[in-house]
Design goal:
The chain is of the alpha+beta class. It contains seven helices and ten strands. The strands form two sheets. Strands 1, 2, 3, 4, 5, 8, 9 and 10 form an eight-stranded mixed β-sheet that branches. A two-stranded antiparallel ribbon has the order 6-7. Strand 8 and strand 9 form a beta hairpin. The radius of gyration is 21 Å and the shape is elongated.
């Protein structure tokens, strides 16, 4: 059985890296005694998949992971949670008990918001993600200058940005991925919403877009902004 977990990475967890998040969630699955299927070989690992990873400093309201459950282990899990009632559980019963067990052991800042079974034959979830919606808050900024810089960015056909990797520098076209940027008038801190496209797992970070605004007259320290991913758009 493949179970998809929808969860929230809250404000107190925003500075966890993707690897830290994955580690915390796997540990929580073990503490919750989920009957997770394991890989074969000398170093078996949980069959868990994570999607659209968030960078350090970014919170997420709608994050997802897939967990493959061992069919034989499910019956034992349900029997243990039902305290020997012996009643055959439906999928809905299984999901309720799985969600409760996981919620009880998750660290502060991470919370389950949904759980459902993924039917066989469904396409890879990563390939179904079409776009992400972000909310970005910027302190102490001239909103007129920010609005002008955003307009200049959106007017470009191409905005190249150098991404520093440990062993190389990669250049990406930010404009190709940014579908929309809107600045909400009258808010303090300045608040904007940014919709960024995904292309078969490839996307760009909103921090890169904010950083690129410096060439349009709006220099912003991306270490001082607050970024939350509000939603994933699926095909």
């Amino acid at each position: 059985m493949r179970v998809r977990v929808k969860y929230k990475k809250g404000d107190t967890a925003r500075f966890l890296s993707h690897l830290d998040m994955a580690r915390n969630l796997r540990m929580a699955l073990a503490r919750a005694k989920w009957p997770v299927a394991m890989t074969q070989g000398y170093s078996p690992k949980m069959k868990v998949s994570f999607y659209a990873p968030l960078p350090v400093g970014t919170a997420g309201d709608e994050e997802y992971m897939d967990v493959i459950l061992d069919d034989e282990g499910i019956a034992g899990f349900i029997q243990a949670k039902a305290k020997g009632a012996g009643k055959r559980a439906q999928n809905s019963d299984v999901l309720v008990r799985l969600a409760r067990a996981l919620s009880d052991v998750l660290p502060k800042g991470i919370a389950v918001s949904g759980l459902y079974v993924v039917p066989d034959g469904k396409p890879n979830f990563e390939s179904q993600i079409r776009a992400s919606l972000y909310r970005i808050e910027v302190e102490e900024v001239n909103t007129e200058a920010l609005s002008s810089a955003i307009e200049e960015f959106l007017a470009q056909e191409q905005v190249l940005f150098a991404v520093q990797r440990p062993k190389q520098t990669k250049t990406v076209d930010l404009r190709r991925f940014v579908e929309k940027i809107s600045l909400v008038p009258g808010l303090n801190p300045a608040t904007l919403f940014m919709k960024i496209r995904h292309d078969n797992g490839r996307t760009v970070r909103p921090q890169w877009v904010i950083d690129s605004l410096s060439r349009f007259g709006m220099g912003i320290d991306t270490g001082e902004i607050t970024v939350d991913r509000l939603k994933l758009y699926l095909e």
